[in-house]
Amino acid sequence: MAKVCPVSKKGSRVGGGYSNRTRATQFNPTGFIRKYPNLQKKRIYVPELKKTITLTLSTKAIKTINKRGAYSVLKKAGVI
């Protein structure tokens, strides 16, 4: 399963883990934590091609496809 959305190009990011104790003392750093995007496996029917494509998309990309149409969004992203 892909870790990057092909439409929105969202992937994992590194964020700082920060505890309240660290805020209180300005010491004891907790290190970094990797945060992953909300990726979902979706089957999308493209009527212009008369095909069904299975992609791993972020939820933001799914909303964009619902709003603008599958063919235009996937063509702009270079998926089809």
UniProtKB/TrEMBL annotation:
MF-aspect GO terms? structural constituent of ribosome
Q: Annotated region Disordered: where? A: 1-21
Q: Which UniProt keywords apply?
A: Ribonucleoprotein, Ribosomal protein
This entry carries the following GO cellular component terms, namely: ribonucleoprotein complex; ribosome
Query: Could you tell me which Pfam families the record lists for this protein?
Result: Ribosomal_L28
- Entry similarity comment: Belongs to the bacterial ribosomal protein bL28 family.
Q: Please identify the protein, giving its name as recorded.
A: 50S ribosomal protein L28
Organism from which the protein derives: Candidatus Zambryskibacteria bacterium RIFCSPLOWO2_02_FULL_39_14
